[in-house]
Write a structure and sequence with these properties.
Blueprint: H1 7-44, H2 50-54, E1 64-74, E2 77-87, E3 100-110, H3 120-123, E4 124-128, E5 131-134, E6 138-140, E7 150-159, E8 169-172, E9 182-185, E10 198-210, E11 213-225, E12 227-228, E13 231-232, E14 237-247, H4 259-262, E15 263-267, E16 270-272, E17 276-277, E18 288-298, E19 303-309, E20 316-322
């Protein structure tokens, strides 16, 4: 018998091949169309960049500024509040514990010949009515400019929202160390002279006898200050600096000891010993030397006595002073 043929199977395979080709063509067309649409969308879409995700563009922050321009001394440095600013945040200060920040822009000057160091986190406080004293949260200042130099920077305080700048004061002084406080109100009455140094010119000579020789102490001036050698006076006290020229007219050296040994500042009957002295232990024969003796006693004195103690007995000689 002749071989059996399968025409239906061949026709089915042909149709299957045609459908497969058609599906592939349609899929390619769809892929091209979708790719074109996606490319157009990506080109025109506003997608965030990596930089914008890390540092998103911040909303403009309103900064309120109050010009101050007030200066007061503390520990031998001149502290000037240039201006005060209020804002909910500052770009260069990420240390914030409150809802807003008060920034005091400062200028600090060291007009002395010595290095003075301060710790602003301890000695600077923001004062406002019905609010506890606030310590700084961030400071852009060194511990103190070099002798004869000045520097600019800022002190930031975290505060509640809507704190009025015109009600604030800046206070210097450590209550922990019981220091005399210096307050600079940002507005209103301010008497900077209350913190200023005073110099009282003197021209009195006192004779002091010691071990067979007499020394002549000429008092040239008395300085009244709230600071000495970078140290702030204690609360309710001031430094009294007595400047002397001491002459030894004798033909031999006289050694009464240092000023700590025989000089006292008498206030209310009590003889206060010096806190510093630059007078020498021995005064050379026929020589005249300069020096100072420093006392720390109650502030605001205009009258007191200088006492020379006898080192060979119980006697003493008091001399009244007015400054």
């Amino acid at each position: 018998m002749p071989p059996v043929t399968h025409p239906r199977k061949r026709r089915f395979a042909s149709w299957l091949w045609l459908w497969l080709v058609a599906v592939l063509v349609v899929g390619a067309v769809v892929l091209i169309v979708v790719s074109s649409i996606a490319g157009y969308w990506l080109q025109n879409a506003n997608l965030p960049t990596a930089a914008s995700v890390i540092n998103p563009t911040a909303t403009t922050v309103l900064v309120t500024t109050l010009n101050v321009g007030r200066t007061a001394p503390y520990a031998g440095l001149d502290m000037t509040v240039v201006n005060a600013q209020y804002a909910t945040s500052f770009d260069d200060d990420n240390i914030q514990s409150g809802a807003a920040i008060v920034r005091l822009n400062m200028q600090i000057a060291n007009h002395t010949t010595g290095q003075i160091s301060v710790v602003y986190y301890m000695i600077a406080h923001l004062i406002a009515p019905h609010m506890d004293a606030l310590a700084p949260t961030n400071v852009l200042l060194s511990t103190g400019p070099k002798p004869g130099k000045s520097e600019s920077g800022w002190i930031d305080f975290s505060v509640a929202k809507n704190v009025p700048l015109n009600t604030l004061s800046l206070q210097f002084g450590s209550t922990v160390l019981n220091e005399s406080l210096v307050t600079i109100p940002l507005t209103g009455k301010f008497n900077a002279s209350q913190y200023a140094d005073r110099v009282s010119r003197q021209d009195d000579t006192y004779s002091y006898y010691f071990s067979g020789g007499t020394l002549n102490y000429r008092l040239t001036s008395v300085e009244t200050r709230f600071d000495y050698e970078g140290n702030q006076a204690k609360a309710d006290k001031q430094f009294y600096i007595l400047n002397f020229q001491v002459a030894n007219p004798n033909g031999v050296d006289i050694s009464p000891g240092y000023g700590f040994d025989y000089l006292r500042m008498v206030v209310n009957g009590y003889g206060n010993p010096p806190v510093d002295n630059t007078l020498p232990y021995t005064f050379g024969a026929g020589k005249t030397v300069n020096g100072r003796v420093v006392f720390s006693v109650q502030s605001g004195l205009h009258n007191f006595s200088l006492r020379f103690l006898s080192q060979t007995g119980n006697g003493a000689q008091d001399y009244g002073l007015s400054v």
